[in-house]
Write a structure and sequence with these properties.
Blueprint lengths: L6 E2 L2 E2 L34 E12 L4 E11 L6 E11 L4 E11 L8 E5 L2 E5 L3 E8 L2 E9 L4 E2 L5 E3 L5 E18 L2 E16 L7 E9 L4 E8 L6 E9 L5 E4 L5 E9 L6 E10 L4 E7 L5 E2 L9 E12 L2 E12 L4 H5 L4
Antiparallel strand pairs: 1-2, 3-4, 3-14, 4-5, 5-6, 7-8, 8-9, 9-10, 10-13, 11-13, 12-13, 13-14, 15-16, 15-24, 16-17, 17-18, 19-20, 20-21, 21-23, 22-23, 23-24
């Protein structure tokens, strides 16, 4: 999942697809609405994004986390706008850096995946192998990610609910092996780790939404995504869902009444004054899952963008809890969107 109510070149950069769900015949599974590998490539939608988050360590045991996303807007003649955003957390130093790049490019309808390069930043990949490069401050990353399990179509068909905003096509590659290097102040170090990838696209309908989104890679080999979508005006919930991937690759869809996300604290950003939930409890009652999530770097806000005026929180978390009475842990990311009042100011009412 990635950020609603973003703006690229004064164009809103969250979208939702307006297609309806197919009605399956009785006793049959619904037909997928996302086809891979064909849908790995770009679509001429109002908004599309390829998103990665991950945790890695260098050869000295120093730990880092990152998120990296490419937004692609709708083509206007021959030009297609792209916005790339990235953050890097150096857990040992306690630093969190953010940055962005913009690009006008052309749309290749025959492309087999994402392929964006600008000013030394690169995101390329076709579903089997991804190449990720970017630099922030004294840090530069050169990473390769290889998927270790099949892609997952959320809600079973690859179409998910954003409440009154509509639906959006959405699939994930929930566990990718990460290798490469990090260069700090001119010194290059090898790194290894694990990564999560999302791909989402659709057409805007003008509604404002916020969400709390969680991706987790658990130490029993399972992967879990959960999200609650809500109205940023009064925090009324619109929709919620989740997806659990077992170690053998089997997938279980979780409905709204089986996913609960709550927080125990509020962190107030010293940069923007925005209050974000901090410290979460995620429960899946039907599976007897209860996880407590703690941020690794509490100050993981992405603010000050020239192209996305509303700030958001995006950071690494540690998970600890129980599943069917047994202890379980893991790592993942939390994404918080809709807490910045400027989100409402920048988007006209539908």
């Amino acid at each position: 999942m990635k950020f609603p109510v973003l703006v690229l070149c004064a164009v809103v950069l969250l979208a939702v697809a307006c297609g309806g769900e197919a009605t399956p015949a009785a006793g049959t599974a619904p037909a997928p609405l996302v086809t891979l590998p064909a849908d790995e490539g770009p679509h001429d939608s109002i908004i599309e994004w390829w998103y990665f988050n991950g945790l890695f360590t260098d050869d000295r045991g120093r730990e880092y986390s990152y998120h990296y996303v490419t937004f692609q807007g709708e083509s206007a003649g021959a030009a297609v706008p792209h916005l790339l955003q990235a953050s890097l957390g150096d857990h040992t130093a306690g630093e969190h850096l953010t940055g962005e790049q913009v690009l006008l490019d052309t749309l290749d309808p025959n492309a087999t995946g994402v392929d964006v390069t600008v000013n030394g930043w690169e995101m390329r990949g076709d579903g089997d192998l991804y190449s990720l490069e970017f630099g922030l401050g004294d840090y530069s990353l050169d990473l390769e990610a290889v998927s270790s399990r099949p892609p997952v179509l959320h809600q079973g068909v690859g179409l998910v609910d954003l409440g009154p905003a509509g639906n959006t096509f959405y699939y994930s590659r929930t566990r990718l092996d990460l290798t490469g290097s990090i260069t700090i102040g001119g010194e290059q170090r090898p790194v290894t780790g694990i990564t999560w990838m999302d791909h989402q696209w659709g057409d805007i309908v003008g509604q404002r939404v916020g969400w709390d989104w969680i991706s987790l890679q658990l130490d029993d080999g399972s992967d879990l995504m959960a999200v609650m979508v809500w109205d940023p005006v009064d925090r009324t919930p619109f929709a919620g869902y989740g997806t659990l991937v077992s170690p053998d690759g089997s997938v279980l869809t979780l409905e709204q009444d089986d996913v609960s996300i709550s927080s125990s604290e509020i962190w107030t950003s010293p940069a923007t004054g925005i209050g974000y939930p901090s410290g979460w409890t995620l429960t899946v009652p039907s599976l007897e899952i209860r996880l407590v999530l703690e941020p690794v770097l509490v100050d993981s806000e992405f603010a000050g963008s020239r192209y996305t005026p509303a700030a958001y929180w995006e950071g690494e978390v540690r998970a600890k809890g129980t599943r069917q009475g047994r202890g379980i842990g893991g790592r993942g990311f939390v994404e918080l969107v809709g807490y910045d009042p400027r989100q409402l100011e920048n988007i006209p009412a539908p």
